[in-house]
């Protein structure tokens, strides 16, 4: 099922929940991630973001909201849905939106971001969310044809300092650029107040992951607070 313009517009001002677990963790099972995603929808998530082909397939069966899918290959450099092969596999697994590295860095398969986006559009019909790390990334991703622009990689590519919370300055810069496509704030959004601030800064929608779906990290926040002198 392809995502209609009306369905995409319905995400404006809404929460998107990222349900992901790291390799080796007890929750690192596709069925579990689909259940977590479904629970987030009950709580008000208008869309979900999941990693891995099996996770996408199980989640598509578990929820009736748009699914943003990605495939992580490694953990350094360009590793978020890094090639056309990965992107098409994510779309084939059922993702309405394929999230991929939207930076200006060289891609492992040697193709440009524009070529990758075009392949997804022409061969699957899925939309593309470009995970960017800077204003220059966002401008280039929009020029390449990406349907949504994300701030997912802000603070992780060396172009911008890693902020404690969301990079509100970058969100504001991209919003002011008038790219005429949804700007999705993602990255280090840990509180409702930060989510609200991201929308106020110009974000179309907000992705929250760790603070909602990663119990190990959430528990550590409380444990560290109690252990502090």
Automatic annotation (TrEMBL):
Can you name this protein? Putative N-acetylmannosamine-6-phosphate 2-epimerase
CDD domains for the chain: NanE
PANTHER family for this protein: N-ACETYLMANNOSAMINE-6-PHOSPHATE 2-EPIMERASE-RELATED
Q: What EC number(s) does its UniProt record assign?
A: 5.1.3.9
Give the pathway annotation: Amino-sugar metabolism; N-acetylneuraminate degradation; D-fructose 6-phosphate from N-acetylneuraminate: step 3/5
Task: List, alphabetically, the InterPro entries matched.
Answer: Aldolase_TIM, NanE, RibuloseP-bd_barrel
The answer to whether keyword Cell membrane applies is no
The major lineage groups are: Bacteria, Bacillati, Actinomycetota, Actinomycetes, Micrococcales
One family name in Pfam for this protein: NanE
Q: Biological process GO annotation list?
A: carbohydrate metabolic process; N-acetylmannosamine catabolic process; N-acetylneuraminate catabolic process
The family annotation for this protein states: Belongs to the NanE family.
Per its database record, what is this protein's job? Converts N-acetylmannosamine-6-phosphate (ManNAc-6-P) to N-acetylglucosamine-6-phosphate (GlcNAc-6-P).
Where does the secretion signal sit in this chain? Answer: none
Q: Which GO terms describe its cellular component?
A: cytosol
Organism in which the protein naturally occurs: Glutamicibacter soli
Top-level enzyme category: isomerase
Where, if anywhere, are coiled coils annotated? none
Single GO term (MF): N-acylglucosamine-6-phosphate 2-epimerase activity
Q: Show the NCBIfam families listed in the entry.
A: PRK01130.1
Q: Which UniProt keywords apply?
A: Carbohydrate metabolism, Isomerase
Reaction(s) catalysed by this chain, per the record, are:
an N-acyl-D-glucosamine 6-phosphate = an N-acyl-D-mannosamine 6-phosphate
């Amino acid at each position: 099922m392809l995502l209609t313009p009306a369905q995409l517009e319905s995400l404006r001002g809404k929460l998107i929940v990222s349900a992901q677990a790291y390799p080796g963790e007890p929750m690192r099972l596709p069925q579990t991630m689909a259940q977590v995603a479904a629970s987030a929808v009950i709580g008000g998530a208008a869309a979900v973001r999941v990693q891995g082909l099996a996770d996408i397939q199980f989640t598509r069966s578990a929820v009736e909201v748009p699914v943003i899918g990605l495939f992580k290959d490694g953990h350094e450099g360009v590793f978020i849905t890094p090639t056309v092969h990965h992107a098409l596999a994510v779309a084939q697994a059922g993702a309405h939106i394929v999230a991929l590295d939207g930076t200006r860095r060289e891609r492992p398969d040697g193709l440009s971001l524009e070529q990758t986006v075009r392949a997804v559009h022409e061969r699957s019909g899925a939309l593309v969310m470009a995970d960017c790390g800077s204003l220059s990334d966002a401008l280039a991703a929009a020029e390449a044809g990406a349907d949504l622009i994300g701030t997912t990689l802000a603070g992780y590519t060396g172009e911008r300092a890693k902020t404690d919370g969301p990079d509100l300055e970058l969100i504001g810069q991209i919003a002011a650029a008038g790219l005429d496509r949804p700007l999705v704030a993602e990255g280090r959004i840990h509180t409702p107040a930060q989510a609200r601030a991201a929308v106020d800064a110009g974000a179309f929608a907000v992705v929250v992951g760790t603070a909602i779906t990663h119990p190990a990290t959430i528990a550590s926040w409380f444990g560290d607070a109690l252990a502090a002198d």
